[in-house]
């Protein structure tokens, strides 16, 4: 995995390579900026770069991504809700304007190859999962009574924290809530981050192609959360349209290291777990089958998911993983 080579400081992180690629001007229309972005990105052979090749210039390809993200932020199309609102003034489906975060720390509870992982928990989410286990930071953080649960996000300060924690951390892990609505803040953070560290995008993967394009050349490892095997379960339990179509499309486009997490849910083995495993069998991804589901938040109102898993369900899920020859992690 290239991810491990970056974590061990044998290869440069992709975002550092972007900061070594000069841009003539950022003073162009959005369409022109995107054209230049796509052209330059398609020419980069990330594999050929060594740490010695990294030499920062300004403005650079990461600055260009930030400029494009600023345009998208004012007409928000970061995720497939496609609210097209100006986030400087309004809130869309996710109700997020500027970025807040709940906490950041060295996480020892992630997959073995990730720990210790410097995990940054952003507030707010573009999903409304009725079983959310982090509902206090993902769903209701904007409630004035509990607003102090979240802290104002400062890109420069966070970059310093990332550099400081790199002494022990193997990666920086952007999560939430959901990182997608915070894409602009995350790109800006990396602009100010000057250590070699793999970038982990820990996400529900309901991004638009525009957002995925901005993450191309930034993310070193996608840590994805694949919840539902069909659109209907997603609409009922997470209030999301076209979930499977979008999330499966996005997985098909990933060409860096990927770990897929699937949280097995009670009574959803054949409508969700099996369909996801069947889809994943076409790819060379690592898969983490997770059994820690517990009914939280509003799950009490949904009979099918208002309990923990049975041993029989856990056994069946593992048999399905074996049936589809998944590379379990
Ligand atoms: S991130 Fe998604 S949900 Fe939030 S405003 Fe943008 S398009 Fe809407």
From TrEMBL:
Keywords: Iron, Iron-sulfur, Metal-binding, S-adenosyl-L-methionine. It comes from Methanocaldococcus infernus (strain DSM 11812 / JCM 15783 / ME). Residues 107-329 form the Radical SAM core domain. PROSITE patterns: RADICAL_SAM (PS51918). This is Radical SAM domain protein. One of its GO terms (molecular function) is metal ion binding. It comes from the Archaea.
